[in-house]
Design a protein that fits this description.
2 copies of one chain form a homodimer. By secondary structure, the first copy, chain A, is α+β, with helices and mostly antiparallel strands. Chain A contains 14 helices and 20 strands.
Chain lengths: ~400, ~400
């Protein structure tokens, strides 16, 4: 197992963030994962990192803070935290994140507190998120199991077995259970080429999504949109994989040209709360109606965070036969669940989803239909009976997905 | 054990830092001690803390950084770190620290790196250390065992037994093994009153230390010096215990009036390196000669860090019969070992060791004989045959300690 974990750590450093000689690295992760985080640190120095700092988190400390700290703690985001990001951003740092949090970490916490802190922190960290979302900085996220997360995914197993089983599922989903995961990921990248080329050459004006769950949605696409998949490329030309695993091809919708209803096909775990059985109605791009059976308040906080969070920032196609989908496991973690299902995101779009987008001003991006927000939250709507049709400028229809599978 | 730990956490919060309603708290500690740190966080909220933040450390991450990071990482101390202290200092934060580090954590690390970073960090954090050393902020340190520390103290025991035994030793030394440690500590404070009153009324001009190990040292005392012991009082009048345990009465020497030779009676664990078998010769207050059998380079870095680190900043009297001394355990941790033995510190003195010192400017303190430095490093020289004589202004001699015990 130690050898497998070492390879997994190396996958994050050499393929995920693709750390280059002389670059600083910041690792974000939980104190309970210290052993794996130390392996990532060592791998990053092997890659030639100039410095590897760790930004430690602890689920229980965070939860207790939300439950017991004074109100004013959530109303401001200290400048020194902003300056810390700026310090590392200015040095071209690679950000690596190890996800392991309990999907229910913040259940029962006053949603107002979460909303308030999310708003002030994302507003103040906008310069940082602009750099990561435009690939001026490279970053990568992977996951390791925590006891609570494992029990959420496998509630009927004893804790140790649940953790063991979640490890197996994660490593399999992440294509990190082979002899040489880094080589496997290079091949994985190439598999997306044909699919991306087809979609990019077609330049559909709209996509129409429909299924038996009730989704009936027209998603307009901006002129010169770009489909991305199988990893990304930094502004310096260095390849990286923001997400491990990744099975999607994605682009940005035209923010003002989305109409119809989308019904979520999986619960959404957002900041330690689970939003279940929800749907959103869009009119001219804007979310005008939404409902959730559980945690509608959290969904409200996401959608109504700012103006841009009422609009879509991502549309992603994932086959129902994707390896992660076929595992049949609900991970309660977007990193995995988004790779089991076609999905959308409300909030900010990746600027490189339109040609030349990384060089456009905020105004130019908006004019091109590329949405902006302090939020970017994915949610799943793909199903085994999903049908997707591409509609060209002249009205020609091309069937893209039938029963959840690509047909081109 | 869980109940004992809860009481120990409460001792740190309610007696050590004496957290008051509405105060922020910052806990510094190691990721391996997360379980205890979470207990401290809860206790701090019980005390009414407005916020409890954790500043996480990890011995292995720190060691790997020292061994593998680029040179320039040690040459600067980022402003955002300074601003973080300022942010919390401005809010009257109580700083709690949980010590558990491996005494050999940095063994084999290039001493130049440690020296360089110590120098830049302490220079930039001077405003913060001035606040803590003048009791403008309250702070408290206690210890919990780590596996490596326990094996250092009890090398012949299996690891789990060593940890268990170090827990027992720590809790006993910290007077935290009774039914109500907080009450025990209130009584403990009172025991120092008579001793402090005697020494403060006598206002000796000099103390003469001599023993068979080779120590023969005259320590001049400044006019209006104050002996402190059994805890301290913040500038706001709130009691606190900076150290758990504490068995010493201490004051500040006259920085320019120390003459003779001191021979250390215990090794000194400094930032993960063990300095052994060392002695220092002082002339008119200044260390003019020093030797160590092991890690003389580290001793050199301490003494030659700045001008003030050549002078003494603390003289502390501890009986050879002190409970910690009687345990006969070498802890390799100053928090414990300094309470088993009379000791000195090179570097900065506590300003409140002279009457009105907290209101004096840097120049006034220096004129009063109170030393300043970016360092403050305690080292032990008390022995079972130590003799201490107080010499009054008029030359009258009063025997203070004979065979390591107080005789007044």
């Amino acid at each position: 197992m130690k050898d497998v974990l070492k390879k997994y750590a190396e996958l994050l450093v050499f393929a995920g963030g693709n750390v280059q000689k002389g670059q600083p690295v910041v690792i974000g992760g939980n104190v309970n994962d210290a052993e794996f985080i130390r392996m990532v640190q060592s791998a990053a120095y092997d890659a030639g990192a100039s410095e590897v700092a760790v930004d430690w988190q602890d689920d229980e400390i965070t939860r207790t803070t939300y439950l017991r700290a004074a109100d004013e703690i959530f109303e401001t985001y200290p400048d020194w935290r902003v300056d810390r990001f700026k310090f590392y951003d200015d040095r071209g740092t690679v950000y690596l994140h190890i996800s392991s949090s309990d999907p229910d970490m913040l259940s029962g916490v006053n949603p107002e507190r979460i909303k308030t802190l999310t708003k002030v922190s994302r507003q103040k960290l906008k310069p940082h998120s602009t750099l990561t979302m435009s690939n001026a900085l490279r970053w990568s996220v992977l996951a390791v199991p925590s006891a609570k997360w494992a029990k959420k995914v496998f509630p009927n197993l004893p804790q140790d077995d649940a953790v063991q089983k979640l490890w197996q599922a994660i490593l399999k989903a992440a294509r990190a259970d082979g002899e040489n995961p880094i080589t496997d990921w290079k091949k994985h990248r190439e598999n997306f080429t044909e699919r991306k080329n087809f979609l990019n050459s077609k330049q559909f004006a709209k996509l129409h999504f429909a299924n038996g769950l009730g989704t009936d949605l027209f998603v307009g696409m901006p002129k010169n949109h770009v489909w991305i998949g199988g990893g990304d490329v930094g502004q310096d030309g260095v390849d990286f994989f923001p997400n491990i695993p990744t099975e999607e091809v994605f682009s940005a919708p035209d923010r003002n040209n989305v109409n119809g209803k989308v019904v979520a096909s999986m619960p959404l775990s957002f900041q330690g709360n689970l939003i279940e059985d929800f749907s959103i109605v869009f009119k001219d791009g804007r979310a005008v109606e939404y409902h959730a059976k559980n945690n509608e308040e959290i969904l409200k906080n996401i959608i109504e965070m700012d103006d841009g969070s009422h609009y879509l920032g991502e549309v992603a196609l994932v086959e129902n036969s994707s390896p992660i989908s076929q595992m049949g496991i609900l991970f309660y973690n977007t990193l995995f669940d988004e790779n089991a299902s076609s999905h959308l995101a409300v909030g900010k779009a990746y600027p490189n989803c339109v040609k030349g987008g990384n060089d456009m001003s905020e105004e130019e991006l908006k004019a091109a239909g590329i949405n902006d927000s302090i939020m970017h939250v994915d949610f799943m709507f793909g199903t085994a009976d999903m049908q997707v049709v591409g509609i060209s400028e002249d009205g020609t229809e091309t069937l893209l997905m039938q029963n959840g599978e690509f047909v081109f």
